[in-house]
């Protein structure tokens, strides 16, 4: 299995090279040259396996330059009951809302209580093995731009991992208090955290620019270092996300919710498009998915794109109660466009250049037709999000976070508009306790809120009678280690300074 860049098909690399490098030298993203095709017998075999077994099968088909022992070690080290609370790190929960059945894929049982743990607990294992295969002796510098969850999950995954340093940038006013406290209290000798004066798109653009600046790369090379990424632009981040959609399908069959071979819909709250892209890749492998329902908050650039074929980031940026989706540049969409354009690096490059220079592009009619056929785009604002949290809690006693509520709301819109009752898997991406204030205001709108985030956690726990995840409860008395803030233009200097490079 080889990989090439979405913007230069002549750059062909192994999976280890793709993971170690993170992003192509031309700024494109690495994609598989082909996808393994699973037969009915393959899927039947997966039914009898646990999550780890399903992961090992998928990884072995994409990471063909890894040995069986290497893949086993990565999986067995990442998906432990100690880290995820049970042998199934991505369990299904079942509920109803106004008569509609909800099959909720809970992806937040890991150490940072967000879906990013599903990939970022295993990425350090992939990366260290990849470095040995491709850049033996070099230290990796992991640069991360985060809208909240990726940062903490990456910090937790890479803390004190040999031959790695990790630097995380987040928008100073664009994450929840709990997310900020999680990052700024991070332990580990090889970690740095810095806020930027800007939004997530500024942070993401800044990181991508640092990656592709030759002078900075040369300075790292002189110090026996190289850049890599823990954002979903890294193939090692995206690949583990494919697994949980395949595993969810197997669990639905085993739980008697669908018959083997039945189609499902997938509903994903997404800003950067990585999580929903993983489900699309699972479909290319043979998973029977009927529709991909893309749920956005008020930053509805993806909704408009799916409905019109025009991607236009020239619009108002909203700071919402679902901050991990406060994104106007959806970097993983590039991978979908590459696939839908017939693996055309030239076409993809033209669209990405138009996005850089004009802030917008329009895809061809043929690509637009496929997107309209396979995807549904919907959005909801903060008020609708909180109303959805309250209805689900009042009717079922099920407490969900703000991002999951966006997905549930858009799923309802989809069913009301189309009448399609195909069973749907709804990706639940974070614990409600990561966004206690917004969730509390939803379930108890008339309550007088306490002053601190942790008092809000206690109040939400008292009202909902749901358990506070141990990793969040343990943060209460931790002191912040990091308080750095920098201008976007100063990010390169910050990185070099943090690494002790002049």
Topology:
Blueprint: E1 3-5, E2 8-13, H1 15-21, E3 30-32, H2 40-47, H3 51-62, H4 68-78, H5 81-84, E4 92-97, E5 100-106, H6 117-120, H7 123-134, E6 139-145, H8 149-158, E7 164-171, H9 177-184, E8 191-196, H10 200-211, H11 214-222, E9 225-229, H12 235-254, E10 264-269, H13 274-284, E11 289-296, H14 301-308, E12 310-312, H15 333-340, H16 345-358, E13 360-362, H17 365-374, E14 375-379, H18 382-396, H19 402-418, E15 424-428, H20 436-443, H21 453-464, H22 470-473, E16 484-486, H23 491-498
Parallel strand pairs: 5-15, 6-7, 6-9, 7-8, 8-16, 10-11, 10-15, 11-14
Antiparallel strand pairs: 1-2, 1-3, 4-5, 12-13
Helix pairs in contact: 1-7, 2-12, 3-4, 3-12, 12-13, 18-19, 18-20, 20-21
Structure description:
There is one protein chain. This protein starts with a strand and ends with a helix. The chain has 23 helices and 16 strands. The longest helix has 20 residues, at 235-254. It is of the alpha/beta class. It has helices at residues 15-21, 40-47, 51-62, 68-78, 81-84, 117-120, 123-134, 149-158, 177-184, 200-211, 214-222, 235-254, 274-284, 301-308, 333-340, 345-358, 365-374, 382-396, 402-418, 436-443, 453-464, 470-473, 491-498; strands at 3-5, 8-13, 30-32, 92-97, 100-106, 139-145, 164-171, 191-196, 225-229, 264-269, 289-296, 310-312, 360-362, 375-379, 424-428, 484-486. 53% of the residues are buried. The chain is globular. The mean pLDDT is 95. It has a domain at 88-111 and 236-331 and 369-435: Rossmann fold. 46% of the residues lie in helices and 17% in strands.
């Amino acid at each position: 299995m080889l990989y090439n860049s979405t913007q230069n098909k002549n750059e062909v690399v192994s999976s280890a090279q793709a993971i170690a490098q993170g992003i192509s030298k031309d700024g494109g993203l690495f994609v598989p040259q082909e996808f393994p095709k699973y037969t009915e017998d393959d899927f039947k075999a997966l039914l009898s396996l646990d999550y780890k077994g399903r992961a090992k099968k998928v990884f072995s088909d994409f990471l063909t330059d890894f040995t069986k022992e290497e893949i086993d070690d990565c999986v067995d080290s990442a998906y432990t009951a100690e880290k995820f609370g049970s042998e199934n790190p991505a369990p299904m929960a079942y509920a109803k809302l106004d008569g509609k059945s909800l099959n909720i894929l809970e992806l937040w049982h890991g150490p940072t209580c967000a879906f990013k743990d599903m990939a970022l607990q295993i990425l350090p294992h992939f990366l260290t093995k990849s470095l040995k295969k491709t850049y033996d002796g070099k230290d990796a510098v992991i640069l991360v731009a985060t809208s909240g969850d990726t940062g903490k999950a990456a910090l937790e995954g890479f803390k004190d991992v040999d031959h790695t340093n990790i630097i995380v940038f987040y928008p100073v006013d664009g994450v929840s208090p709990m997310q900020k406290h999680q990052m700024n209290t991070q332990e580990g000798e090889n970690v740095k955290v810095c806020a930027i004066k800007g939004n997530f798109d500024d942070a993401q653009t800044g990181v991508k620019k640092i990656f592709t600046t030759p002078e900075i790369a040369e300075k790292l090379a002189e110090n026996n270092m190289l850049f890599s990424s823990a954002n979903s632009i890294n193939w090692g981040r995206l690949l583990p996300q494919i697994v949980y959609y395949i595993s969810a399908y197997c669990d639905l069959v085993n739980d008697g919710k669908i018959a083997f071979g039945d189609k499902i819909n997938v509903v994903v709250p997404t800003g950067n498009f990585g999580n929903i892209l993983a489900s699309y890749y699972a479909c290319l492998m043979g998973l029977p998915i009927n529709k991909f329902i893309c749920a956005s908050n008020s930053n509805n650039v993806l909704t408009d794109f799916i409905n019109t074929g025009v991607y236009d980031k020239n619009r108002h940026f909203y700071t919402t109660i679902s901050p991990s989706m406060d994104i106007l540049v959806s970097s993983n969409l590039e991978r979908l466009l590459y696939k839908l354009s017939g693996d055309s690096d030239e076409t993809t490059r033209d669209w990405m250049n138009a996005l850089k220079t004009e802030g917008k592009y329009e895809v061809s009619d043929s690509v637009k037709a496929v997107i309209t056929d396979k995807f549904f785009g919907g959005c909801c604002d903060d008020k609708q999000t909180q109303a959805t949290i309250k209805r689900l809690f009042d009717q079922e006693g099920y407490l969900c976070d703000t991002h999951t509520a966006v997905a549930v709301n858009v799923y309802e819109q989809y069913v009301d508009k189309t009448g399609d009752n195909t069973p749907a898997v709804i990706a639940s991406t974070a614990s409600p306790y990561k966004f206690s204030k917004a969730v509390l205001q939803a379930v108890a709108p008339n309550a007088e809120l306490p002053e601190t985030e942790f008092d809000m956690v206690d109040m939400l726990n008292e009202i909902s009678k749901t358990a506070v995840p141990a990793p969040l409860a343990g943060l209460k008395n931790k002191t912040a280690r990091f308080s750095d803030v920098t201008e976007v233009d100063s990010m390169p200097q910050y990185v070099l300074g943090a690494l002790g490079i002049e």
